[in-house]
From TrEMBL:
Signal peptide: none
UniProt similarity note: Belongs to the universal stress protein A family.
Domain UspA per the UniProt entry, residue ranges: 1-147
Protein name: Universal stress protein
Phylogenetic classification of the source organism: Bacteria, Pseudomonadati, Pseudomonadota, Betaproteobacteria, Burkholderiales
Amino acid sequence: MPHRILLAMDGSETSWQALREAIRFAMPDDIVRTISVIDDPFAHYQSAFASHIDLEAVREGLIAETQLTLADAYKKLHEEGLQADTRSIDLRAWGGTIADAIVREAERWHADLLILGTHGRRGIRRLMIGSVAEQVLRQAHRPVMLVTCSSAASSQSASAMSAESTKG
């Protein structure tokens, strides 16, 4: 029976590493759905930036970049002989956070496994920015594979996987 693998990408090098891991992990009959969430980071600050920045142009750029990322990921998965599809998720329509959207899509699509990159932020950067990967790990009711780019962080990824498997 084929497995359904949900791969979340944001276009970063870490998410491309997650794609490479998904390719290594997936079996020929598995289906890989690549998603990318379009955040609306200016939603809360429109009045402050509206006179200085064309926020809709910025948003259109984010959407175009997301579509390119998904097209490139689809092409790479297809070249590797894997069944693939893509989906962009717009938080303007879905609401919630990026992590909420990833977990909702995993549940809606009945994913057997979620794969996403983690940037490994620490200290004040993590406190201020938060960790989408950590939020997904806490919210998901299915296995999560976290992928990092640095070899030093690979032990963190293994720790996260074992923490998920004991979660229940």
